[in-house]
Prior knowledge:
Helix content: under 10%
Strand content: 35-45%
Order of helices and strands: EEEEEEEHEEEEHEE
Oligomer: single chain
Structural class: mainly beta
Amino acid sequence: MIGRRAFLAAGVAACVPLAGRAQPEEVEALAFSRLPAGAPLPAWLEPVTFRGAPAAEFALVEDEGGTVLRVRARAAASGLARTLRVDPAAYPVLAWRWKVTRLVEKGDLAKKEGDDYAARLYVTFDLDAAALDLGERLRIALARALWGERLPLAALCYVWDARAAVGTIVPNVYTDRVRMVVADSGPALLGRWVARRRDLADDFRRAFGLPAPAVTGVIVSADTDNTGESVESYFGDVRFLRR
């Protein structure tokens, strides 16, 4: 939903180690498991609000012996963001866990009125505007005039869809600066924790036809404001890994 509404983003809050230093095997983007269940949301999680939409409810809860993030959306839409900077050449694999208990039945990748998902995981990128053609730069200038200067030039949005085939990559119905990637689909795995890994660098190349620039942040969300439906979903830790 980053294309259709303004979102609030902070400056870079975390970086991978500088070149020349020993680098870890992974970068933790969202480490919910390190937090106590029932605690207030940490300061490094920044609310993402959408114009005209009620906010979803977020809470740190215990599930299967560990702390995870629960999101409930009832005709609502919002998210939580963590800003960080990660080099996808060094850490090209995105890994996460999520659990969805109910699908957005009226969701539809191809329609604005169906742009709702039980779970979304955005990754935003620091794309250089100079890499875009004049027409794209003009469209982005107009979008930023409407939504704010922090609107990203490029984002991948991994979703759990109701029916689209896993692996589908298409432009968001509101903006082609966000590409939708179907990571899970359908009811077969509802109510179960599902671990996913995606080759972030390859997904970006397939989506935009360019090498992946630096990652600038991640956002977790669920939204049902278009369809008016209700969902409850859960997110585990999100990490960037070496290949």
